[in-house]
């Protein structure tokens, strides 16, 4: 009986990631050569949490910085665009960019931006906000930055005991988009026991891509002896895919995460007949294909796939790249050729 690979669908790029990468790629593709030695574009933080994507865009000329203060003043004066990553930024970062006179392209995922708007709306209405997220994650930092005095971060069910609100406090719950319904269920239940009046947001903040990829990998894991997730260690959704796969394997085997095929450990394949494969929402499918080819070299010659849903979500590029007039003001040195982003 042939050893086989089962690919999870959907996997890889989501619409928000695609939009963010395309934002940087559009600027790179249309940039004219410069004589002042300045790069065509700066990007604050990793555009998405995948080192291969960052390395490739760096190779093409993008310069990644941790903070805006690392960008030289002459770049701002020359109108070099600064792209904000898909994870969103706090108002403090936006203000800093304005004060430094920078030309900004905001590539924040629209689903993350929705949570930012929810924070502002609930604060205006007098709420305290309990936010479930990963401490230090770029998305969480940006959301909390909208109103640090009113947004209370918790990571786990055990953190609920540290919260203290009186019964007359208006409370609402928001969550980081890359967390899953299963992952937050216990924490939400604990919150509802401790604060029965807490309100849930009118619609889930869990993004469609997170839910879809986790449902697919769970189904694949149930048919596999081992699961390998392609994704970087700092990718919240990739790490969670591995955890979901481990749960679904139910002790029959283990799930592992790799950045690329070069991290594949042959020992994981001992006694394995079927390997499930998926990837995080910021992973190019070329990396998955590289893993498939590596697995085929170990005798996994049959390739099947499991599809749980067909995704057709797409987001257009940021306004600064879509409007000819704005784009001209932003850069002044290359022509606008942006197209709509689809997946």
From TrEMBL:
Domain of life according to the entry: Bacteria
Binding site for isopentenyl diphosphate: 49, 87, 137, 235-237, 282
E.C. no: 1.17.7.4
Entry keyword annotation includes Transmembrane: no
Xref: InterPro entries: LytB/IspH (IPR003451)
Catalytic activity: dimethylallyl diphosphate + 2 oxidized [2Fe-2S]-[ferredoxin] + H2O = (2E)-4-hydroxy-3-methylbut-2-enyl diphosphate + 2 reduced [2Fe-2S]-[ferredoxin] + 2 H(+); isopentenyl diphosphate + 2 oxidized [2Fe-2S]-[ferredoxin] + H2O = (2E)-4-hydroxy-3-methylbut-2-enyl diphosphate + 2 reduced [2Fe-2S]-[ferredoxin] + 2 H(+)
Keywords linked to the UniProt accession: 4Fe-4S, Iron, Iron-sulfur, Isoprene biosynthesis, Metal-binding, Oxidoreductase
Catalytic residues (positions): 139
MF (Gene Ontology): 4 iron, 4 sulfur cluster binding; 4-hydroxy-3-methylbut-2-enyl diphosphate reductase activity; metal ion binding
Record GO biological process: dimethylallyl diphosphate biosynthetic process; isopentenyl diphosphate biosynthetic process, methylerythritol 4-phosphate pathway; terpenoid biosynthetic process
Residue numbers binding [4Fe-4S] cluster: 14, 109, 207
Listed cofactors: [4Fe-4S] cluster
Residues the record lists as binding (2E)-4-hydroxy-3-methylbut-2-enyl diphosphate: 49, 87, 137, 177, 235-237, 282
Pfam families reported for this sequence: LYTB
Reported function: Catalyzes the conversion of 1-hydroxy-2-methyl-2-(E)-butenyl 4-diphosphate (HMBPP) into a mixture of isopentenyl diphosphate (IPP) and dimethylallyl diphosphate (DMAPP). Acts in the terminal step of the DOXP/MEP pathway for isoprenoid precursor biosynthesis.
Stored HAMAP family: IspH
Family, as annotated: Belongs to the IspH family.
PANTHER family: 4-HYDROXY-3-METHYLBUT-2-ENYL DIPHOSPHATE REDUCTASE
Name of the protein: 4-hydroxy-3-methylbut-2-enyl diphosphate reductase
Organism of origin: Bifidobacterium canis
């Amino acid at each position: 009986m042939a050893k086989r690979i089962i690919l999870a669908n959907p996997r890889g790029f989501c619409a928000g990631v695609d939009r963010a990468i395309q934002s940087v790629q559009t600027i790179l593709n249309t940039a004219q050569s410069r004589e002042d030695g300045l790069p065509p574009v700066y990007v604050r933080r990793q555009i998405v949490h995948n080192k291969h994507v960052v390395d490739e865009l760096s190779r093409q000329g993008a310069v990644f910085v941790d903070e805006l203060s690392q960008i030289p003043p002459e770049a701002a004066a020359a109108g070099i665009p600064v792209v904000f990553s898909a994870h969103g930024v706090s108002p403090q970062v936006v203000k800093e960019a304005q004060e430094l006179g920078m030309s900004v392209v905001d590539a924040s995922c629209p689903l993350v931006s929705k949570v930012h708007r929810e924070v502002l709306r609930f604060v205006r209405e007098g709420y305290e906000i309990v936010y479930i997220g990963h401490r230090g994650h770029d998305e969480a930092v940006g959301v909390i930055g909208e109103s640090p005095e009113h947004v209370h971060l918790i990571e786990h069910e055990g953190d609920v005991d540290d919260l203290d609100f009186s019964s007359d406090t208006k409370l609402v719950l928001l969550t980081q988009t890359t967390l899953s319904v299963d992952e937050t269920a216990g924490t939400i239940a604990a919150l509802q026991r401790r604060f029965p009046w807490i309100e849930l947001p009118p619609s889930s903040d869990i993004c469609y891509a997170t839910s879809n990829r986790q449902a697919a990998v769970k189904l694949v894991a149930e048919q596999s002896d081992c699961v390998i997730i392609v994704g970087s260690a700092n990718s919240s959704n990739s790490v969670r895919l591995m955890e979901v796969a481990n749960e679904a394997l139910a002790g029959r085997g283990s799930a592992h995460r790799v950045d690329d095929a070069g991290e594949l450990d042959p020992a994981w394949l001992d006694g394995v007949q079927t390997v499930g494969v998926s990837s995080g929402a910021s992973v190019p499918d070329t990396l998955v294909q590289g893993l498939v080819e590596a697995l085929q070299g170990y005798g996994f010659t049959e390739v099947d796939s499991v599809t749980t849903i067909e995704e057709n979500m797409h987001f257009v590029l940021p306004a600064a790249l879509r409007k000819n007039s704005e784009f001209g003001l932003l850069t002044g040195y290359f022509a606008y050729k942006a197209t709509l982003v689809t997946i």
